[in-house]
Every structure is written in structure tokens, then in C-alpha cells.
Design a protein that fits this description.
Layout lengths: L13 H9 L4 E2 L2 H10 L3 E7 L7 H15 L3 E7 L20 H12 L16 E4 L1 H4 L4 H8 L5 H4 L3 H8 L6 H4 L1 H16 L1 E7 L3 H15 L4 E5 L12 E2 L2 E2 L9 H9 L6 H8 L4 H8 L6 H17 L1 H16 L9 E4 L1 H5 L5 H7 L6 H9 L3 E3 L2 E2 L18 E5 L3 E7 L1
Parallel strand pairs: 2-3, 2-5, 3-4, 5-6, 9-13
Antiparallel strand pairs: 1-6, 7-8, 10-11, 10-12, 12-13
Helix pairs in contact: 10-11, 12-15, 12-16, 13-14, 13-15, 15-16, 18-19
This protein binds one RNA strand of 81 nucleotides through helix 15, helix 16 and helix 19.
Amino acid sequence: MTEAASPALPFKSDFLRTLQERGFIHQVTDAGGLDEKAAKGRVVAYIGFDATAPSLHAGSLVQIMMLRWLQKTGHKPIVLMGGGTTKVGDPSGKDASRQLLTEDDIKANIASIKQAFSPFLTFGDGPTDAIMIDNDAWLSGYGYIQFLREFGPHFTVNRMLTFDSVKMRLEREQPLTFLEFNYMLMQAVDFLELYQRHGCVLQMGGSDQWGNIVNGVEIVRRKSDGEAFGLTTPLLTTSSGAKMGKTAAGAVWLNADMRSPYDYWQFWRNTEDADVGRFLRLFTDLPIPEIERLEKLPGAEINEAKKVLADEATGMLHGREAASQARAAAEAAFEQGRLSADLPTVEVPRATLESGETTIAALAVDAGLASSRGEARRLAEGGGLRLNDEQIKDGMRPVTVADLNADGVLKLAAGKKKIVLVRPF
RNA sequence: GGAGGAAUGUCCCGAGUGGCAAAGGGGGCGGACUGUAAAUCCGCUGCGAAAGCUUCGUAGGUUCGAGUCCUACUUCCUCCA
């Protein structure tokens, strides 16, 4: 078994060299062998995505970008949708089992997740075109006894118990169900199936997938006598330790209907100073010298680099136009104190304002700035609520049509960053 | 099957004597300072305009009053068989 080989530095293949200099590589099963193979010819590689939510979030972006570089350096990406594996649920990195999703939920999630890939990869039938496959295609076809006889002999429980995902549960005395215990076998079988069907020799994933990936590499060797590789990316956290892709407002979803381009742009714009260079390498296509220039910008000028990051990341996902609109809206709001029609907007019945019975706290709830009126009131008392740029400390202050500005809208802000336009209809 | 232990503010951890809207953290949100950054400091963190209402695994019971006592049930952990 090949352990976490520290990557040999001068890679010959464009693929590994690019991943290396951009910070994608955490562990590789056999860096030299993979480099050799990638330098010689076309490699088919895959990454699996489980369908636990209706959209992927920024945390998955590292994986998507890695497939993008794979394709750009002349190889073939396979996007594996986990329609089958999601039915079981991956215990990796979790200290409690997730609630099981219904098959309908999973199907709906897959349909919704799919959209996110097309901006990043070129799909088609060509030799380096990306393809998308659902592992439900083979996993659901196995009978229980058949599956056990076919793959069971290749896994020892002794060894399975040594994997982090399992060990963690046992050490913390958290239950690990037999169902979840089987997950790693299923993922291993995925690799084998893809190897046999598509000549796929490389599985990539996040560092929490190392155990699962290694199992796949081994099963390919044992069942097919084939040569297979695994590669993981570092676990992404911000410099201050927060998990990537999560913010107060929830996950940073990639689907536009779950997180607007404006909010997406803002997410990247608010990157911590210390992360700018790392993120530019991981989440944009910008050439390294350009990134090196940007990350060295002194003091407040680093903000320019953050805008570039936001432009590039948003542009790649939502398109250039959406990105520049988002940028314009944000610059207007934050740098010039002006309003922009591109700010997030909430519509409220005109009658609500005319009745004079609405309070600013209630409005803040309607606008999604607070989850209850009490919370909105506390926000106001703490000085965090603004109506048309004026701080309102009394959450019970009524809001009427008289508060509409010249454009016929209300500008409501919670804190400095969350701004919403309230428009009567 | 037997013995013991555990479930607390619906984000997490975690104290809790019969008078508790319930200590303390973490996280989160807001404010100050800055640069829409980090670090730091301060405030807030069940619902309600209020009276008040609803919270401590579930369902009953004792009590003027129950997170705290009793009974049953559920789930989990540890040990024995």
C-alpha cells in the first residue's frame, strides 16, 4: 500500500505541475507513477459528488476546479453523481449519521446540482470531453449476496477499522451504523466500475476522502490487476480557521436561485487578506505571475486583488455580465454610498406601508435580515439597523410610504454588509 | 437477557440545589477600531408591542411550584451473559 507520498517537486506532466503550483495537492498515492502516466498520454479521472443538497457549495469548488484543470491539461474528466451512494450516506468527516434522503429527493438534488458543472467543463463525446455518470446505474443493480461475494473478500474489517472515518466514530463513542460502514465499499466499487467501463485510473477528492479513495485504488488492483491512483486536496479553511463555503447566511451555494450572483460576488470580496493568494490560485484561471503580483499588493490595496478574485470567481460561474453587475452594485453601495437596482430586492405589498401598521422590525424580518421580530429589535437596539442610511434604534418605529425615497424604495441595512431594497408593489 | 450510565436553551459543548427563561464556553449576529480584512475590546443571542406564552428525549404522576422527585416508554453508551 502506498502511503501519502509527499509530491516529488518537479513534475513532468502539465496536469500535476499545474495542480501543484496552484495548491490543489494534499496527498497522492503514487505521485511519480501518476506523473509518468499523465506526461505520456491522456488520463481519465473522476470525482464523486453526493447529492445531499439541491446545490453544491463553495466547498466543492476546489474539486470542480481540479476537474477543470484536468481537462485543460488534456485529460478526460468524469463527474460522478452519487445517486447510489447518497442512498447510504458517507460517514467521512461526520460525527453523526445524516438523515437518509428519499430516492425522490436524491433525484431532484442531482437534477439541480448538474447545472453547476457546465460553466466549468466542456461536456461531449470527444476524447477529452467531460462526461457525467450516476453511480446508481450499477450500485442499485447488485443483489446483496452478489455484492458481498464479489467484493467482500477483498476488504478486511481489521483494516476498515483503521480508517479515520471509522476510527473517529469509535473513539468518540458515536454510533456508526452498519449501513454507513458499507459506504467505503460502495465508493471503492465505483472506482472499479469506472476503471472497467471508461478506463478511469485516477480518483480525486477532498482530504476526508482519502480512505475511500485508497480502497478504490486497491480494489482496482485486486480485481482488475490495473494501475490506479488517488489524489486528495487539502481541507479548505479560511486563515482564521472557519470552514470554507459556509457563512452566517448559510452555505455559499453555487446555484443562482439559492445564492444570487451579487451575494456570491460579495462572498469572495470579503475574503480575508491572508487567503487572497491561495484563493486566486484555487478558484481562478489567472496565470501565476499575475496572482503573485496581486497577492503582494500592500495594505488596503489588497482589496483590489479581492475584487479581481470576486470578478473571476463570479464570472466563471454566473458569467462576466453578472459579475460586473454585481461589482457595480457593490461598489456603488460601499464605496459611493449610492443605491443600485442590482442590490437584493424584496417586494412588499404597498398596502402594508399605507396602513401605517408596519414596524421596522417587522420589515427587517420580511426582508430576510432577521429571523424574528425580537431579533430585529435587538439588532436595532444594538445600533445595527439602518433605514435609508439612518440608524434606527427603536425597532417599533413605524414605517410608512413617507419613508420611501425618491426612487420609491426603502433601503434597509443590517450591519454594514447586508443591504436590501424594499420595493412596494 | 442482566447491571450501570446518559439525553439540557431545536447550531454545538456544557453546569444545574424543588422557585429557572435556566451558569459558563464555542459558534453566530451587531457595535467600536480599520480597508466591505484579520486581531482586539464591548453588547446581543427562545417567541411576543406588552400582559404573557413556550423550552431541558417522550408520555403520565407527586407537589402551591419540577430540568431537578416517582412511573412507563424511546434512543445511545459501558460492562456482564
